[in-house]
Specification:
heterodimer, A: about 425 residues, alpha+beta, Naphthalene 1,2-dioxygenase Alpha Subunit, Chain A, domain 1, Rieske Iron-sulfur Protein, 7-stranded antiparallel β-sheet, 11 helices, about 25% strand, B: alpha+beta, Nuclear Transport Factor 2, Chain: A, 6-stranded mixed β-sheet, 6 strands
Chain lengths: ~425, ~150
């Protein structure tokens, strides 16, 4: 039976934790608040260490809190991160996404900096500033950087943040043995999609949408073990999904993968979501890494990386690339479908469309079609925002705006 | 000797057939040993990338599987200009370089936008009665393709 306006706006008949108000995907003020309270506080993947192999290599990164960053490898081979902003007149210091710079020199007035963030030269400094302002006063703004969990370069723009290890906790334990060898990025592309970043992370946090993927239905859902995969939640909003044996040979034109991944069973598949927008996705011979960088409430740029082993032979690398491209990359079977899905959500949830609720109500003992992964994410989102995801503006009678739900614990409680 | 005009028309016809989703018609223009790939260079990771690679049988399977998948159905239009045709290779094949622009037209309203630019690097067999595609490498300058696309360029 169809519903009228009143019925359409009625709260779903689920506990408060099992649905969200679509305002959290569309509201500009909430997005600005997320930038400060979430992205400005959490550890975020900026790039992979293999993208800066040599001393003085640099990589730029648009941090989701809004800050443009430079990651640079020093002469001491240490990676450091700085604002990509000249302290003089606020110009961009480095324009190219990568490069090699022993000295970082602003094109505007030629102020120079070394790879430790020290200002090394102010053009005609003494003539203009005399003793009032010196290089010591003009260092770059450094932010925390740490390498780990597969060789990724993590950054945190909050000086008061705890260490990366504390933030990740045990969440990546399932992948630890599979990331003990040096990795290398072989695929990189970005996609700008008119949708909210959380909707992309949601898609990476639930497998019920496998109905959308012919490839996953044939090779996974119809195979033994699929419905045994379980979600596990971890503190700070991270969640993992256990493995199964994917039957790649069931998709016409595909076949069982020959290269595989060290320690991973043939056809294995481990997926781990890291709050607030990163996903490790290890399928047989390729590790895919998604990093969602919101540009606004209804716009996100997603960085997609495909990684193999640094020790790959050319033949092994070619096989990984083939495996990757079958389902991922801009022409892959699955990625296009996933992006089509969140693109559609972006259209339907635009402000003014009268969309109201998104339901996360499936309970199947935390197995693969349970929606507990998303519930776990929104428990953490609510804790950090001090707002309920199902009532972000405290509009409901009895709701306490700004009241924080209890800190997220194990997923079984989500 | 096959005239240049026939080689040009093979390139143009191949794009027109893909635009029309006449996949069997496209494959009929290809030699049995045909190979196809999409490549791009990523400055971000300083690497050459292969985004799609198939032989003729693999392409046919890809085309056959398309109806089973959920896809963006916005049509695309390939605009090609043949730049050079060189026939001085040892294998007797012609090497053709063409400029490529791909436009995407929305189904709802029909708004057209530029989707991708790049070049086609084709190898054409010219020792038969009609020219045939032996190899096509789509070299993309555009690397941001939004939600992506299931049909090869």
């Amino acid at each position: 039976m169809s519903r009228n306006a009143i019925q359409w706006h009625q709260k779903p008949g689920f506990p408060d934790t099992h649905y969200v108000d679509t305002a959290i995907y569309t509201d500009e003020s909430l997005f600005r608040e997320e930038q400060a309270k979430i992205f400005g506080k959490c550890w975020i993947i900026a790039c992979h260490e293999s993208e800066l192999p040599s001393a003085f290599d640099y990589r730029t990164f648009q941090h989701p809190a809004g800050v443009p960053l430079i990651i640079v490898r020093g002469e001491d081979m240490k990676l450091r991160a700085f604002y990509n902003i000249c302290p003089h007149r606020g110009n961009t210091l480095l324009y190219d996404p990568v490069g090699n710079a022993k000295r970082i020199t602003c094109i505007f007035h030629a102020w120079s900096f070394d790879t430790k963030g020290n200002c090394t030269d102010i053009s005609r400094g003494k003539e203009g500033y005399q003793e009032r302002f010196k290089c010591e006063d003009a260092g770059l703004r450094e932010v925390k950087a740490s390498i780990g969990y597969g060789g990724f370069v993590w950054v945190n723009v909050d000086d008061e943040s705890g260490p990366l290890q504390e933030y990740i906790g045990d969440a990546l334990g399932m992948l630890e043995e599979h990331m003990s060898m040096p990795l290398e990025v072989f695929h990189y592309h970005k996609a700008v999609v008119d949708t909210n970043y959380k909707l992309w992370h949601d898609t990476n946090s639930e497998f019920y949408h496998d109905y959308m993927h012919y490839f996953n239905r044939i090779t996974g859902m119809l195979q033994p073990g699929y419905f045994d995969r379980k979600y596990t939640g971890y503190p700070n909003g991270h969640a993992s999904v256990g493995s199964m044996s994917v039957r790649y040979d069931k998709y016409e034109g595909s076949k069982n993968r020959s290269v595989g991944w060290p320690g991973l069973a043939p056809g294995g598949w481990i997926l781990i979501d890291i709050f607030p927008g990163m996903t490790y996705n290890l399928r047989t011979s390729v590790l895919r890494m998604d990093t969602a960088i919101p540009l606004g409430p209804n716009k996100v740029v997603i960085e997609f990386r495909g990684l193999g082993l640094k020790s790959d032979t050319p033949a092994e690398r070619a096989e990984r690339i083939r495996d990757h491209n079958t389902i991922w990359g801009p022409f892959g079977r699955n990625l296009h479908e996933d992006l089509l899905g969140v693109h559609g959500q972006g259209i339907a949830m635009r402000e003014g469309t009268d969309s109201k609720w998104v339901i996360h109500g499936r309970e199947e003992n935390m197995t693969i079609h349970d929606e507990g992964g998303m519930r776990h994410f929104y428990a953490e989102w609510s804790r950090r925002m001090g707002r309920r995801a199902n009532d972000p503006f405290g509009a409901s009678p009895g709701a306490s705006p700004g009241a924080s739900p209890a800190p997220a614990k194990k997923l079984a409680t989500a | 000797m096959i005239p240049k005009q026939s080689i040009d028309e093979l390139i143009y016809r191949s794009c027109m057939r893909l635009d029309a989703k006449d996949f069997s018609g496209f494959l009929a223009l290809c030699d049995p040993g045909f190979r196809y790939r999409v490549t791009a260079f990523s400055p971000e990771i300083r690497k050459e990338m292969i985004w799609l690679e198939h032989d003729k049988a693999g392409l046919k399977l890809l085309f056959d599987n398309l109806p089973r998948h959920n896809s963006d159905h916005s049509p695309i239009t390939r605009h090609v200009t043949v730049y050079t045709v060189e026939r001085d290779g040892d294998d007797g094949n012609a090497r053709v370089v063409s400029g490529l622009q791909v436009y995407r037209t929305t189904l709802d309203g029909g708004e057209t936008t530029l989707y991708a630019v790049g070049k086609l690097h084709d190898i054409v067999k010219v020792d038969g009665a009609t020219p045939l595609l032996v190899d096509r490498s789509v070299r993309l300058d555009t690397r941001m393709l939004g939600i992506g696309y299931h049909i090869p360029f």
